[in-house]
Amino acid sequence: MDLRNNPNIYIMDHPLIKHKISVLRNKNTGTYEFRALVNEVAMLMAYEALRDLETEDVEVETPLEKTMAPMINGKKLALVPILRAGLGMTNGILELEPNAKVGHIGLYRDPDTHEPHEYYCKLPDSIEERIVVVTDPMLATGGSAIAAVDCIKKYGGKRIKFMCLLAAPEGLKKLATAHPDIQIYVGSLERCLNENAYICPGLGDAGDRIFGTR
Ligand code: PRP
Ligand code: URA
Fold this sequence. Notes:
Elements: E1 9-11, H1 15-25, H2 31-49, E2 55-61, E3 66-72, E4 77-83, H3 90-96, E5 101-102, E6 104-109, E7 116-122, E8 131-135, E9 138-139, H4 143-154, E10 159-167, H5 169-178, E11 183-189, E12 192-193, E13 199-200, H6 206-211
Parallel strand pairs: 1-11, 4-5, 4-6, 4-8, 8-10, 9-10, 10-11
Antiparallel strand pairs: 2-3, 6-7, 12-13
The structure holds 1-O-pyrophosphono-5-O-phosphono-alpha-D-ribofuranose and uracil (URA).
């Protein structure tokens, strides 16, 4: 699969996104700055990912006259962070669209098998009518992202987008193959996975760096 020419895969090339991801990679970047930057990159990526949000013309009175003007119905958007690390991207996107509903999917990756295990799922109602943006900073083997999208589809979700800061080619290919109907937004396409299924060069454990745990 040619990842860079797949019409459903969007790899960011904006210098602001590249710069902020470079700061995230630095092992000396502390929790406070890391958390702020994850939200900032998520916001910049959402600008691209939400390009196809629908607008409705509503009447607005300008200081000069009445006119019909396009407005977004933000209630039609659902953000679904994959716990924990996906939570770190939520506020940045909510800055752009504060009326979005927010669901949560709890998954953790088994440290030995790297298989995802679901421990929580709560989605906004009428999920089938919404644009659903799933967030997780890291797409490594792809197991967690595939499980999250499986879960959203099981509850009726149809218009699904997945947003990550870093993706390994292995996981990106696996997700695009398992769910060819979704759009995938990637901050940076990385070189490879290492023997522990960590992304290289990567930024380490995103959850630990966002929440200051170890
Ligand atoms: C990390 C990351 C993804 C997952 C990616 O979460 O945030 O959810 O691993 O790996 P995969 O593509 O191989 O499934 P982790 O399981 O470490 O949980 P956390 O967010 O609670 O730290
Ligand atoms: N999860 C992370 O947080 N980082 C990786 O590199 C891979 C999975």
